[in-house]
Amino acid sequence: MARLADYFVVVGYDFDKRASSESQGQILQRFPEKDWEDNPFPQGIELFCQPSGWQLLSERKPPTFFVAVLTDINSERHYCACFTFWESVGDLQTQKSQPREAVEDEDHGIVQPTQLFAPKSLVLVSRLDHTEVFRNCLSLMYTVHIDHLNVQLETLIGNLLTCIIPIAGGSQPCLDEKEELSRTITLGAGDRQVIQTPVNDSLPVSGCSVALLFRQLGILNVLYLFCAALTEQKILFLSSSYQRLSDACRGILSILFPLKYSFTYVPILPGKLLEVLSSPTPFIIGVNSFFRSETQELLDVIIADLDGGTVTVPECVHVSLLPEPLLHQTKTVLSMVMDPELQYADHAFPPTSIQSSALKIQDKEIRAVFLWLFAQLFQGYRWCLHIIRIHPEPVIRFHKAAFLGQGSMTEDDFLNKVLDGMAFAGFVSERGPPYRATDLFDDLMANDMERIKMEEGHPCKILKHIKELAEHLFKNENPYPSVAMHKIQKPTEGSHLRIHQKIFPSLDEVAVQFRIDHAASSQKSAPPVVKPEKKCLVLSGPPIAAMVDRNGSALANSARRLEVVRNCITYIFENKLLEAKKLLPAVLRALKSRVARQCLTQELNLHAQQNRAVLDDLQFDYIVRMMNCTLQDCSHMDEHGIAAALLPLVTVFCRKLGAGITQFAYSCVQEHSVWMNMQFWEAMFYSDVQNHIRALYIEENESCDQDNGEQMPGGKSALEIAAVQRRLWPTLCKEKQLELVQKEESTVFSQAIHYANRMSYLLLPLDTSKNRLLNRSGLGDVESVSNSYVTNSIAGSMAESYDTESGFEDAEGSDVANTVVRFINRFVDKVCTESGVTNEHLKTLHTNIPDIVQMHIETLEAVHRESKRLPPIQKPKLLRPSLLVGEELVMEGLRVNLMSDGRDEATGGVSGGLALLPAEGAIFLTTYRLIFKGTPTDPLVGEQVVTRSFPIASLTKEKKISFPAQMEPYFGEGLQLRSCTFQLMKIAFDEEVSSDLVELFRKHLHKLRYPQQVQGTFAFTVGQSAKTLVETKSKEKNQSLKTLSKNLMKNAKKTIGRQYVTRKKYTPPTWETRSGAQFATDEDDISISEEPDQSSLTLSSTIKSSDRQTMSNVVERACCRDYQRLGLGTLSNSLTRSKNEPFRISTVNRMYTVCRSYPGLLIVPQSIQDPTIQRISRCYRHNRFPVVCWRNSRTKAVLLRSAGLHGKGVAGFFKSPNAPTAGPSQTDSTSLEQEKYLQAIIKSMPSYSEATGRNTLSGFSSAQMSSSVSVIGHRARVISLSQPRATVKARKSPRGKWGSIRVNNRMSSYNPDIGTRLAAKDIPPPQANGGPSETHFLRQQRAYLYIIGDKSQLKGTKQDPFQQWEVVPIEVFDIRQVKNSFKKLMKACVPSSVSNESNMTFYRCLEDSEWLCLLHKVLQVSVLVVELLDSSSSVMVSLEEGWDITTQVVSLVQLLSDPYYRTMEGFRLLVEKEWLSFGHRFSHRGAQTLASQSSGFTPVFLQFLDCVHQIHLQFPMEFEFSQYYLKFLAYHYVSNRFRTFLLDCDCERIELGVMYEEKGERKNQTVYKSVWDYIDKLNKKTPIFFNYMFSPEDGEVLKPYSHISNLKLWDFYTYETLSEGPSYDWELVHGRYEQPDESDRQDTASQKSQRKIVWPCYDNRSKVEPDAITKLLQELQSLEVELGLVSEKWKDTWDKIKATQRTETKLESRHSLFSPLLLSSNLSHQRRTQGMYLQESVGSSINLLESENIATSTPSGSMASGRRSTSTLYSQFQTSESEHRSLEGVLYKKGAILKPWKPRWFVLDKTKHQLRYYESKIDKDCKGVIDLAEVESIIQGTPSMGAPKNIDEKAFFDLKTTKRFYNFCAPDSHNAQLWIDSIQSCLSDA
Q1: pLDDT tens for residues 918-929?
Q2: Quick one: DSSP state of residue 1521?
Q3: Closest Cα partner for 631 from 570, 676, 566, 663?
Q4: Angle, nearest 10°, between helix axes 1375-1389 and 1411-1430?
Q5: CA–CA separation, 513 and 164 (whole Å)
Q6: What is the pLDDT of residue 1452?
Q7: What pTM does this model have?
Q8: Closest CA to 369 of 415, 409, 332
Q9: Could you give the CA distance from residue 1319 to residue 1249 in angstroms, rounded to a whole number?
Q10: Residue 560: how many CB atoms within 10 A of its CB?
C-alpha cells in the first residue's frame, strides 16, 4: 500500500522579486508542512510548474495540466502533477512591483487600469504515476474554488493526502478479487473515482503514450530513438506541449521494457536548467519548442521534434540499428499494427471489417511487438548466466562472449553495445536470480520461444501472437474495465473567463494537518497488511540453436574434413607420424572452420583422460601446431569457447626434455591475444566456480559431470540447484546457513589460487631473460634453431599499459615477473571482490601470487635450457635464382616465408588447386630485381619451385607488417613490397635473420630503387660490381660522348649568335588600321628579313664541322625517318627551298634552345620563319609550340601537337579584346603571329585552295567582327562532319572499320554526338527545308582546323566566324587522377589481404578505381580526332603540358589511322617519335631517381599501352605484333633494364651521351642497351611477338568502341606464373621448357599417356600448351636439327606457307567461278573481325590463310591490284648498301677458339670482292665480311672437333687470310667444290 499523494503544494508568482531580471515563483503553501520520513519533499518544484518561466500576461489563459518528473538523489522518481490557472493582479501588488499605469479615455472620461494576470499552480507530488486521477483531483479543487461550491478545500486536501491505495495487485486480504485490483476513492465533494492498479507492477503503465509517439514520429524515427536509447545516446524531445513531452518520454521507457533506463530522465526541463543538455552522460530530456534555437549548437544530441514529426541525427553520432533480419521483421509487424489496411490495399475485394484498433489497444499491440523483439534478441540468455554464489545472496554474472558466439552475433555493433550497457547490467541483476517472482517477459522467454521460431516468416501468425501479448498487457493495466467509472464535477463552461474572480484563498493549515494526523493514527491501529510474495523457479527456456558458421561454407564444414581431423589426431597418438604428416596441411586448412576447431578440442580431450599425457618430440610438435592454428583464428573474446576448451589441455600434453624436466604445451601457445584479455579469464573463472558450486550441492547419487551450466540427463543445472537452495534458505538454521556460506567462500578461494597458477603458465614467456630485448627491438635474436617454439609473452605489451613501479629493477627478469604479478593481482581483486571472498583470504592470495610466479620462472629456466639442446629443425635448402648477364647479387639470400595475399589462386581458394603459398625460401636482392625462390610449405606440392620477382625500379611501396603466431617457426619482422608490374610480396623473415640484416636489406633496397642520378639505374650500371653500386658511385661511362655533348651545347650560343639578326623593325597596326587594310599576300609578313633567313640555309652553311656529326645523327632519328616517309619535308642542299612543299623540316631547335623537350628537327609550315617560331613558342607551356607530327595520306589533313597556352597568351590567341588598344603591344604582335601560324597550316591543306570565301579576318571591320561574335559566341561550334564538302568533287566517303561485326548497321562517317559530348555543347537545329541554319551562312560547314583544348583553360573563349579554325573544349583528367586510379587498380588486382566485406568484391574495387573510365575518355577523344582527320580537317591537340595526355591522344590517332604504325617496325617508330623524341617525362613519371621520389609513380605510358590492348582486342587481324609484345613493353618500360625509357627528353639523352651508340657496340652485344634491339633479337629466334592473325587491309582506319562495356581488363594486371616468375626476361625462362621437352620426347615410347597438368597461377600456359602454329614451328625446327639440316628461320617458314596457300587459293578460284572462297566483302569483314585461337591442328592455320586470301582477292574500293607481302611491312626502307650476289647459300663456319660450328648465310660478291655472311637469308644486317684481297689460299679441309655429323669429308674446305684461318663446311661435296671454284675465280679475276 502507498499514499496516493505525498504533498499538496500551492505555487504562486513571487511579486517581491518581480523587479529583478528574471521573475520567479514561490511556494505559497504546502501540506503537510513537515516531510514524510520515507519520502522527503523534493526541491525545485516552482521551476517545473512554469518550465518556460514565470511571467505576467495581459490576458487570462485557460487552465493547463501536465505532469513533470523529478528524480531525487536515490534515483527515486517523483511525479509532479501541475494544474495552473491565472488570477488577476491586485492594485496593491501592482503598486509594489511597478509604477501604476493608466490610460485616460478623453471621450468617455473613464480611467481603465491595465489588467495583468499572474499564474498560480496547484501541485500534487506522488511516487505513483496515475495521471488521470491527479487531473481529476486537481480539477475538482479548481471547480470548488471557481464555482464557489459549498465544500471546504481543506477537506478535499486532507482526504487526498490521507488516501491509501495498493501499488499493484491489491493488498487487502479481506477484500474480494475485484476490490483487490481496484480502489474507489472520494475527496468529499460528491465525487467518485475508481483507481485500477496494475496486476504486476514490474510491467510499465503506458496508457496511450506509445501509440501517440508512433503517430507523431513514424515507425522508422521511433526505431532510431529506440536504438539510440539502448546504445546510450543523448535524446532530446521538442514540443510546444508539455503533456506531449511527458507522454513521449513515458512511451520510450515503455518500449524499452524489460530493460530499465538508468540515466538522466527529465521529461520536462525548465528553461533555467538548459545547461543540463551539455552534460557528457546520456539522457532523455524534453524541452519546450520555445528554446529550439538554444539547442542548435548541440553536436552530439539526437533531436526529435514531436510537432514536426522529424528526428535529426548529427553527423558525428552513429546510431547502431537492430541486426537484420530483426529490423526488417520489426518494421513489417509494426506496419501491420499501425496500418492493418496496408496489406489489403491492392486487393480487388478487400475485407470491410479491417480497421485500426482503438488507441489504447494499439498502444499495447506496439508494446507487444517490442516485447516479442526483446525475446528474440535475448533468446537463451539464461544459459549464459554464471552463478558464482548462492548464499547468503545470489551473485550472477553474464557470459557475453558465449552469448554472442552461440548466436553468431559477434560482429553486430548494436548487440555488443546493448550487452555492455548499464541497462543490461541491471537486467542481469534483476532477472538473473533463478528463484523470484516472474512476469510476462519471463513467461515469454520460457514458453513461447519455440512458437516464435516456427512463426518466423509468417507475418499473419506473428500478428496473431502479438495481439495475444497485447491482450495480456491491456489486462495488466485495466483488470476490470467495466468498473472504471468516474464521477467528477467539472467547472461551468467559460468560468475561467469571468471578469471578477476570487483569488485562490489561503488554506487553513491547522485543519488540513488535523485530518492528516487523524488518518495516520487510525492506520497505526489497523493491523499491518502483508502481501505474500509469489516466488517460483524461473525457467531458462530452450537454448540457442546451433548456428551455421558465418565464415565457413558447406565445403569447409563437411563431414569429410571433420573426418580428416579425427584421423590425423588418431595417427599422431598411434605414432603413425608419416601418415599424420600427409594429413597435417589438410587439417590446418580445415581448422579455419569453427566446427573443425571444436572437433579438434573434443578429440584432444578424449586423449587427455589423465592429468598428464607425455608425447615424443614430433607428436608434441604436431599437437602444438594444431593448437596454434586453432587459436590464431579465435578472437580475443573466444566467443565459441575454443580457447576455453584448450585451456585445461595445454597443461596436460607435454614432453620430456631431461631428467625431471618436462615441457608442457602452454609454453608454446602463449602468442595469442585471447590470453591477455581480462574478460576471458573472468568468464573462465566464473564458469569453473559455477561447476564447483553445483558439485557442492549435488547429492552423492547424482552425476558430478561438469557441463558449464547445461542440464545433463543425470542431474540439474546450476541455476536449478540455486533455485532449490534459495527456496530452502529461510528454513535452514543459522549454523547450517553459516556452514554453506563458508563452503562456497572456500570454493571460490581455491579456484582463485588455481587460476593464479594457470595465468602464470600462459603469461610468463619461456625465456624470461630475453623478454626485455624482445620488447625493445621487436625481434628476438634466437641463439639456436630448435624444435622448441620459443615465443614472446604478452608481458611486453602489458608492461606499457600498467604502471611499472618495481623494487627489483636490478633483477634479470624482474620486469616480466612484476608485470605478470600485477596482472594476476588485478584479476584476483576483481573476481574475489565480486564473489564475496573474505579479506583474510584476499591478503593470503596477494602474498602467495609473487611466490607462484617466481617458482614458475625457475621451472621455465630449466625447461628453456634443455629445449636449446634439442636437434635443430630441418629447414629447406635455399635455392639460388638464375641471373641475367651483368646482374649481380647485392645481398645473399635471407631466409623468409612468402605469405599469401588477397589473391586466393595460389592458396587453393575458390578456384581449387593446391596450396602453393605460403612458401619457404629466400629473398634475393640483385642490382636489377627482387627475387623470391623457394618451395611450398604444403608437403603435397613441396617438390615444386615457387618464384616471384619484379624489378627494383618498379617498387612503389614498402611497409612493415606483422603476422600472427602460426604453426611455423617464429616469424620475425614482415615486409610488404608492392610493384607497379602488378606484383606483391608479403614476406616474413625467419627467426635466424636478425633485425640488423632486415634493416640493411631495406637500406640497400631503397638505395637501389631511388639512385641519386639516372646513371645509377641498372641500365647504366649493368656489369658493375654490386658492392661498388651500393657503396660508391661508379665512374662515368661514355666520356667521349659526354664531352662531345657538352661541347655541342656550349657552342650553341655561339652558333645562334652568328645568325643574321638585322631585321626591319615591325610595328603591328592598331585594330582601326587593321580593319581598313587589305593584305593580299600569303607570304609570312610578320617578320621581314633583309638578309637570307637562317632556316633556309643548309646544314653545311650554318653548322660547324664539330656539330655535323650530331646533326647527321639527328637526321637518322625516328622523327626524321617518319617525316620523310610521310612526305612532310626534306633537308635540301640548296639555298632555296621548294615552294611547292607546304611544310619544311626546321632546324631551329637543333641545339634544343627553343624547346628543351622537343626533338632537334621539327615540321613547320613552309611560310613560317624560324624567328617567328621562337616568338610563338613563348606563349605555350614549356615552349612546346604547335608542330606537325603526322599527315593523312589521303585527305592531306595534318595532326599537330602542342602544350596548353600560358594564361597570358590566351587573351591574344582566342579571346576578342574588350576594347581597341591605343597602340601596338606585344600581346597583339604575338596574337597575330599565332594567327598567321594557324593560317599557314590551313593553307597547306589541298581542300583550302578549292574552297570559296575569305580566308583571313583582316578584311573585316571590328564592328562586323563584334556582331558576328555576338551571334555565334553562344551557340555550338562542333559541326557535324557527316556531310561531304560541296567543293570537293567525287570524293569518297570516309573509310573506316568499327570494332564490331555489325558494320552495316552503323554509320562509318563522323558521329556528331561524339564532338558534342566532348565539347559539352549542343548542335544547332537544322532549318525546315533541310538547309543549314542562319548562322551557318556566316562561315563554311566545316572548319579546316580543329583545336582540341582543355575546357578549364579555354573558359571565356569566343569563336570567330571568319577564321577557319575552331576550338573544341573537352574535359580531361589530370595526372593526380591517373595516379590515384592506378593505386586503386593495383589494390583491386593485387589485394594485400582477403576482404571480408561483402561490398568490396573484385569488380566493385575495379569500378571504384575508375581505370576503365580513364581509358574510355582517352579512346573517345582519339576516335573524335580520327574522324575529324578522315573528313579532311586538320586537328591540333593542345592539352596540359603536351607530354602526357597529348602524347596518348596523338599516338592513338596515328595508330588508328595509319596501318604502318600497327606493324612492329611502325609501332617502334611511333613510340620513339611521339614518346621519346617529343619528351614524355619517363624518369619523372616513373619516379626513377631520388629527386622524383616525391612525385610518385604515374603510369601514363601504361595507360596508352592498355588503350592499344583494347584496340587489339577489337581488331585482332590488324596488328602485326601480339598481345605479349604490349605486355613486354609494359613490363620493361619500368624495369630500367634498358636505357630506352630513361630520361625525359632527347636533350638529356645527348647530354649524358646515351643518345647515339658507337656503331660497333650493337654487334655481338651480350648486354642490350635498347629494348628495340632486344626485341629484334628475340623476334628472329621465336615468334613470341608475332600475331599469326595479322592480315591487314591497306589504308584501313580503325574506329574502336570506347564505351566501358566494350573495354576489358588487361590480363597483364592479373596474370601470374609462380613457376618461373615474370616471363619478360627471356633468357631466364627460355631454356627451362626445352630440356623437359627433350626428355619427354625420349620417353615417349614408354609412356602411355601424354597428359599434362596445368596449374592456375603456376604454369605458363602459353609455353606448356602453345598454340598450334607455334607448336608446329617448334616441331619443324626440332626435326631439322635431328636430320642435321640447317634450321630455317621461323619467319621464312611462315612466309613460305602463306605464299603457298595464296597460290593454291588462286588456282582453285580459277577452276571454279562459284568457289565458296569468293565471298562478299561484308562476309569477309565479319570473318576478319572474329578472333581466332589456333591451338588444335594445322588445319586451323590453313583456314586462317584462306581467310586472309579471301580478304585480299575480294574487290573492295579501289584495291584492284595485288597487295604487298606481310614481310614487307617489317621494313619499308631497304638498306642503302647495294647488293651484288654472285653466289649465296648456307655454309657451316667454325668459330673462334672454343666456339662451336654455326650455320651462316654466305654471299659471294664479285663486284665488291667480298665474302659476307648473315644470320639468315632474310637478315639485312651483315655479321661479318671477308675481304678477298686478303685471301692467301683456299684448300680442301678435314673435319675438326664439333663439326656437323653425317656430312661427307669432301664437303669441308679451309680459307686462309692474312689475319686468320677460316674452316667451312658445305651441305655436300658438290656445293663445297662450287664454292671453292667460285672463290678461286674471283681471286684469278682480281
Answers
A1: 888 999 999 999
A2: B
A3: 676
A4: 130
A5: 17
A6: 95
A7: 0.56
A8: 332
A9: 29
A10: 9
